[in-house]
Amino acid sequence: MIKCSHINICAESAFSPSQQQLNIINKCIGSGKERTLTLEGISLNKDATKSFFEIVPIEVLNMNSCFANDNQLQLVCDSLMNQTNLREILLATNNITSLGCSAIGRLLNKINCVEILDLSGNPIELGTIFDCLSSNKSLISLDMREVKLKATAYESLCNCLKTNQTLTSINISLNPASEKEGHFLKEAFRENFSITEFRITGNQFGIANEREICLGYI
Questions:
Q1: Alpha-carbon distance values, 141 to 7, 34, 190 (Å)
Q2: Vertex 212 angle, CA 101 and 179, to 5°
Q3: What residue ranges do the domains of the chain occupy?
Q4: Residue in 92, 88, 20, 26 with CA at minimum distance from that of residue 58
Q5: Using CA atoms, how far apart are residues 129 and 124, in angstroms rounded to an integer?
Q6: Partners of 188 in beta bridges
Q7: Cβ–Cβ contacts within 10 Å for residue 118, how many?
């Protein structure tokens, strides 16, 4: 079952759902002005999820704190492949790992319109999403706070910083790190000209490295 806290649908788009799909939508539709579907407390089964996400033109998908796992996220991502108005995907505090990040990466590079992605508070560990973003040209903000990044993830992040010139904001606060990772990031920033905000609160990169990292994007 898929749970969402809310979804903003594209204000200018028209869609013609079937009666079954309309029934699903009518159960959770919010204010006509806000065009927000409030799905809190409502669960969609596999078929309903596919129908729902394929037909509703979405601008903001909020699945924060919905206990979503990789399999559920894969289903959602597959169902969003034809979206052209999706700007924000909020997935904080779920049970998403690097497998789920692979599905997100495929989605981002297929529809190429998502600008904000929040994956904070998930047990991601690996740098899969950074690998997927190396050539992405739409995402500008990525939140990876407290996702238990391993050393190899920082290698992927450094490669991403060297090749991606679209991202302007990254948050990797509260992740395990050492001065070694800090040194690699410092070097990567010498090849990045797009980042204007890089949050590293609670990491152990070393004072000297942190100072140079900050100077790298000022």
A1: 19, 24, 20
A2: 65
A3: 63-217
A4: 88
A5: 9
A6: none
A7: 21
| DSSP letter assigned to residue 126 | S
pLDDT of residue 164: 95
Q: What is the pLDDT of residue 90?
A: 93
State residue 14 phi and psi, 5-degree precision: -110, 145
Cα 132 to Cα 151, 160, 161, distances in angstroms: 17, 8, 12
Q: Which residue has the tokens 């796992």?
A: 69
Parts of the chain with a pLDDT under 70:
1-49, 51, 55, 206-218
Distances (CA, A) of 180 to 16, 129, 216, 218: 55, 21, 17, 22
Which homologous superfamily does the CATH classification assign to the domain defined by 63-217?
Ribonuclease Inhibitor (3.80.10.10)
Structure tokens, 40: 């809190």
Pairwise CA distance, residues 54 & 44, whole Å: 13
pTM summary value: 0.83
| 96 contacts 117 by C-beta, under 8 angstroms | no
Per DSSP, 113 falls in state -
